[in-house]
Structure formats: structure tokens, C-alpha cells
Amino acid sequence: MDYFSLLQWPAMVVNILAVWLLTSQTKGKRHAGFLFSILSNVLWVIWGWHAQAFAVLGLQVALATLNIQGVRKTESNAQAR
């Protein structure tokens, strides 16, 4: 059995949970959403590498970069207040 192929399902669930948390009005839940989003990116990269789905790899690297930028921007805006 190819366990790497099954990795796409937890990656999808973590991704949905991340987006749900990111829409929260609570700062702690949004922060958890960013962390879950990064975890989702890592899971998708592992799956994409195994499946040789290079477009998925590129997308996940871009999304992770945007997520990290969003966290930094949010933190710098919070410190400026």
C-alpha cells in the first residue's frame, strides 16, 4: 500500500481547518490558522513530491510564502498600535 498517496486526505482536512480558523475574529484562532496552514503546506509538499505534482509544489511554496508574510505583517501592525 502506498501511504504517501493517502497523505493528501489529512493535508486536505488540515487545509480546511486552517481556512476555518483564519476566518475567526479571535486572534488566537487566527494564529492557529496560520500554523495549520503552514502544516498543510508541508503535507502537500510531501505528497506533491511523491506524486511528482510539481504545480502543487510550486503552489504550496507560494502559499507558504504568503502565509509567512501575512504573519509578519500582522505582527508588525500589532506592534505599531
TrEMBL record:
It comes from the Bacteria. The chain crosses the membrane at residues 6-23, 30-47. Keywords: Membrane, Transmembrane, Transmembrane helix. This is Amino acid transporter. It comes from Nitrosospira lacus.
